[in-house]
Amino acid sequence: MFPRLLDALRYLYGRLFDPDRPAGKASATGTSPVAAPSRRDRRRQRMESKAAQAKIQAFLTSVNLRRGLNEKQRQKNDGVVAYRWRTAGDRYVCEYCAANDGKVFQWDDPPPLTGHPASGCCCANGVCRCTAEPMPGETRRDLAG
């Protein structure tokens, strides 16, 4: 069974094993020629690629939401009541996050359009890479005492 599997892989991915061979031509090793992919095959490949991209995007969104919630809970447990909004600082930052960059917000009073960092409410792709930098001296203990 194993040799048949290798033959099938060589047939399907012939260009990987013999990159000098153009599609549809027999290789120097004598294996059967690999036909160029049909229009239906290319369409199926595009659909599979889009499905894989959607799965990756959904995974990144869930990871970022968990990261944001964990950061919020950790800072609240430490007594931090305020944070400074920090963006990733690259060209993928949305306009709402860019407007909040460097501003100070309270954990109990989130920004109206965006919510807290990494909540993904404002970003077009749902993946907010912003972080909440805790403000030193802005804890409940410092404000009470």
Question: How is this structure best described in words?
Answer:
The chain is mainly alpha-helical and 145 residues long. The protein has two domains: 1-36, no CATH class; 39-138, no CATH class. It has five helices and three strands; from the N terminus they run αααβαββα. The chain has a three-stranded antiparallel sheet with strand order 2-1-3, covered by helices on one side. The protein is elongated. The relative contact order is 0.12. The model has no long low-confidence stretch (mean pLDDT 74).
In short:
This protein is mainly α. It is built from 5 helices and 3 strands, in the order H-H-H-E-H-E-E-H. The chain has 2 domains: 1-36, no CATH class; 39-138, no CATH class.
Structural class assignment: mainly alpha
Overall mean pLDDT: 74
Low-confidence stretches: none
Count of DSSP E strands?
A: 3
Quickly count the domains.
2
Largest sheet: 3 strands, antiparallel
Helix fraction?
40-55%
Rg: 26 Å
Number of helical runs?
Answer: 5
Classify the beta-strand content into a percent band.
Answer: 5-15%
Helix and strand element order: HHHEHEEH
Rough outline: elongated
Strand order of the largest sheet: 2-1-3
Distance between the termini: 76 Å
Domain Phage head morphogenesis: 66-131
Protein name: Phage head morphogenesis domain-containing protein
Region (Disordered): 22-51
Organism: Cupriavidus pauculus
